[in-house]
């Protein structure tokens, strides 16, 4: 495939993210309005305005600042957190070596969001009314790569790969394809890995989805 064809393919994959992402956020707000949560709905609309601006900006670009990608993730998590009856805890951990360079580090737009969505809507689904759900996003440096892991403390992977793709609206293949393109199809390591975490007795402790993104700093 030529570089021009790869570029067009990449643009197409990016464009698929925008309507799905915004549609889900609007649906969440509609649900809140129908329940009569006026103040919460206004708060969400303000967040959505900020989120929409970032998403619109990001999906017009092949790469965006890691700082913006983290802010998109944070706003999305906050919106979803309010949908849980008692919320859930979340942490975003950033490698100390990256903290001063977030605005100079580039990543594909909305590369984290589908995995965060799966973690919240599927992984933490069983903890929606308990307030005991936990979500962790860690971003570290590993041999010229960004290593990004999204971990939840839910029931592990209960869907097949094809069901996960269908339920998330944006397939895991979309993420993998975009990572392959920016790697030039030359990386031997698996770029996207999703697995169930288990204790010594085999009990599921949650799900971890990890991405390897080339370290690009400008």
From TrEMBL:
Residues 9-85 form the Signal transduction histidine kinase internal region domain. Its EC number is 2.7.13.3. Keywords: Kinase, Transferase. It is an enzyme of class 2 (transferase). Pfam families: His_kinase (PF06580). The keyword Kinase applies. One of its GO terms (cellular component) is membrane. One of its GO terms (molecular function) is phosphorelay sensor kinase activity. It comes from the Bacteria. This is Sensor histidine kinase YpdA. The gene is ypdA_8.
